[in-house]
Design goal:
695 residues, alpha+beta, 6-stranded antiparallel β-barrel, 4-stranded antiparallel beta sheet, 18 helices, 24% strand, globular
């Protein structure tokens, strides 16, 4: 029997923490939230101070039974869920279930899953922070009211399966507004004129203006006149300036910063980034060392770093790169206005765990993301990069041209990390030795017609940055928000770009007309500020609800009465209905797109959209098809069903089991994807080699 029961959120976290504690401790996992609002009803009573009605989540009964049994045998219970609003709320729900007094010191938290951090937290338990709990409860109730009051209107007026949300609707609007800007954009003509000058090494100078004053060129006639004049001219140096440009190291990652850089550099979606980051945080098996938490807590908008971690990094940098790479004073960063500073920035838990040394134990995704986090953190504690900058001005028959050159004097933090958005600017342009009074001739002068470009469509990276800048949502909401707007069919991915669909425009326009506050950026940001004030204990959460609910309910009732039904034209497929002969149309339901007969309700025929898999059926050799169950789960079946009844919940691969000769399937574990025999009795596992990962 264990003296102390420690309850965490995930089994992986439980395994890692269990390694640090002795036999007197028992560590169990709640598997995330154990209670929530019911899906079938509103679950909130506005007449009783917005009292939420919580129920045990489906599938958590056995988990709670185990926790209750272990709790009865323990002398002390410690709640060690994640150090944020959601984690605090889970601890509060567990306390309610286990009849713990919230005023007792039963709550522990740590920013990283290391032996020191866990053991130190056990020495300093605290009471459950009800301000944090109330802030989470306020967000949950607010989102439930918005979703459950507006979504039925969308079902009745537009189509079934749609939803509205306090953050998702604003995100969709931002994407739609950008698309409208692009569509309304009128390009303007302009010309660039570049002279290639003779020197020890030819170099380029660009037209700036006339007599030293800036001038834009808008027509071919202007461009050709300047080109002809410059081609015959002597390029006299009228000014030559030299100086130094110092570039300070970037701050360590916040959640949004990590999502943005992982998108730009690794091509990861926000969802993929957070999934892999969670694995690195909870712990990865490092051979004989067992599970090790490799990074600090992943949901943060702080750039602060603990003194101990900063000191360790400075020592490591000095030993690995040299004293000149260690700044005289530790680098301190200022977070954005309104940022929550409860947790550190995202960093490696131990700088001695350099990516190369542990690469063999990580999946491909884990290695890439860990390397990105590690290098960004190390760079953040390093010296500035220094460049020599030369700026030269030329006069060519009254036309002013300019050239600039850069040369690295000291690479500083760039020896480890280069910011992705600045990579194009970091290319060196070396000019020959130049002094005022020198003159050059033009080897060639080129004029190019160009047009101003519309604003770019959002990528996941730029959308996350925009949501953060405008105060919409919080670090934990960015990934699920983007997934939701895509899953609902409001936004589609075109490679890395986020493109609004016709449905997205229809729903956004309806929301802008009937629920202007819900999709108003300033209003939504203000609600986030009020939730922060609840967390800080400055305002009661029920007051926030009351101020919001009365005018909101009036808007809902008005919209329900006044909004006219919107008919969305169906997208016609080339699939013929086998019951009535009509061409079937694409529809969107709660589990995605499907085919339906356009003659509904006379003909109620529907079909799943067939997605063939490039693997033969292991039973008969026909094609395999990806399908969805009525509950939305993906499975794989033979196209000859019902003649062939092959079915698999995992993706089959074109490989036979070397142990039993059966078929193999792709699975995903804590350390990433792997291939295993479909027969659990066989148990053969074939982990992907590095070469296979790199293909």
């Amino acid at each position: 029997m264990a003296d102390t029961l420690v309850i965490v959120e995930s089994p992986a976290k439980a395994k890692t923490i269990g390694k640090f504690l002795g036999n007197k401790y028992k560590v169990v996992a709640s598997n995330g939230h154990v209670r929530d609002l019911p899906k079938s009803t509103l679950g909130v009573d506005p007449e009783k101070n917005f009292a939420p009605k919580y129920i045990t989540l489906r599938g958590r009964g056995d988990v709670l039974e185990t926790i209750r049994r272990e709790a009865k045998e323990a002398n002390r219970i410690l709640l060690a869920t994640d150090p944020d609003r959601e984690g605090e709320a889970i601890s509060w729900h567990l306390a309610q279930i286990l009849n713990l007094n919230v005023k007792d010191k039963c709550r522990i938290e740590f920013n990283e899953i290391t032996a020191n951090a866990v053991k130190n937290s056990i020495k300093k338990p605290r009471t459950i922070d009800m301000n944090l709990v109330d802030a989470q409860q306020a967000r949950r109730v607010l989102d439930r009211l918005v979703g459950y009051k507006i979504s039925p209107i969308l079902w009745h007026k537009v189509q079934k399966g749609l939803s509205a949300g306090r953050v998702q609707s604003v995100a969709t609007r931002i994407i739609c507004d950008r698309e409208e800007e692009i569509n309304e954009f009128v390009p303007e003509e302009y010309w660039t004129i570049t002279a290639k000058l003779n020197g020890q090494k030819p170099f380029e100078a660009r037209y700036y203006g006339e007599q030293g004053k800036k001038k834009d060129v808008h027509t071919a006639d202007e461009a050709n006149e300047i080109k002809a004049r410059a081609a015959k001219a002597s390029f006299a140096v009228t000014e030559c300036k030299t100086g130094e440009k110092r570039k300070h190291a970037p701050a360590p990652f916040t959640t949004s910063g990590l999502q943005q850089d992982a998108s730009r550099k690794l091509g990861f979606t926000t969802k993929r980034t957070m999934m892999v980051a969670q694995q690195l945080y909870e712990g990865v098996e490092l051979g004989k060392r067992g599970p090790v938490g490799l990074i600090s807590y992943i949901r943060t908008d702080s750039v602060r770093v603990a003194e101990e971690a900063q000191s360790a990094a400075r020592t490591f940098i000095g030993e690995s790169y040299g004293a000149q790479y260690v700044p005289d004073k530790p680098n301190i960063y200022k977070g954005r206005r309104g940022a929550q500073d409860a947790h550190e920035a995202i960093r490696p838990t131990d700088v001695k765990n350099d990516p190369k040394s542990i690469k063999a134990f990580l999946s491909s995704d884990q290695y890439k993301l860990y390397k990105l986090i590690y290098e960004r953190f190390l760079a953040s504690q390093m010296s500035e990069a220094v460049q020599a900058v030369t700026s030269v001005t030329f006069d060519a028959n009254g036309a002013t041209f300019k050239a600039s050159g850069t040369r690295t004097l000291f690479d500083g933090y760039t020896a480890v990390y280069t910011e992705s958005r600045d990579e194009a600017d970091d290319e060196e342009t070396v000019l020959p030795a130049i002094a005022e009074g020198d003159a050059f001739t033009a080897k060639a002068v080129d004029a190019q017609q160009k047009f101003t470009q519309p604003p770019a469509r959002y990528t996941e990276a730029t959308l996350v940055r925009t949501l953060e800048e405008k105060g919409i949502g919080r670090p934990s909401t960015y990934a699920p928000t983007i997934s939701t707007v895509i899953d609902r069919g409001y936004v589609a991915r075109d490679k890395k770009l986020l493109v609004p669909t016709d449905l997205g425009f229809i729903v956004t326009n309806l929301m802008k007309k009937s629920f202007p506050d819900i999709v108003d950026i300033a209003f939504t940001a203000h609600m986030e500020e009020e939730l922060d004030e609840v967390e800080e204990g400055k305002i009661d959460w029920t007051k926030v609800m009351a101020n919001f609910y009365t005018p909101f309910l009036q808007t809902v009732e008005k919209a329900d009465a006044e909004v006219e039904k919107i008919k969305i034209p169906d997208e016609v497929s080339d699939v013929v209905c086998d019951k009535c002969g009509a061409l079937m149309v694409y529809k969107t339901g709660r589990f995605g797109r499907f085919l339906a007969c356009p003659n509904f309700p006379t003909c109620r025929n529907t079909k799943a959209i067939i997605e063939k898999i490039d693997v033969p059926c292991p039973k008969c050799g026909a094609a395999l098809i990806k399908r969805r169950s009525k509950k939305g789960k993906t499975f794989y079946g033979c196209e000859r069903y019902p003649e062939c009844d092959f079915i698999s919940g995992y993706l089959p691969v074109n490989m036979k089991c070397p142990q039993c000769g059966g078929y193999m399937v792709q699975k995903r574990g804590t350390n990433g994807a792997f291939i295993a025999c479909a027969d659990p009795k066989c148990g053969y596992v074939h982990r992907k080699t590095k070469k296979e990962d790199d293909k």
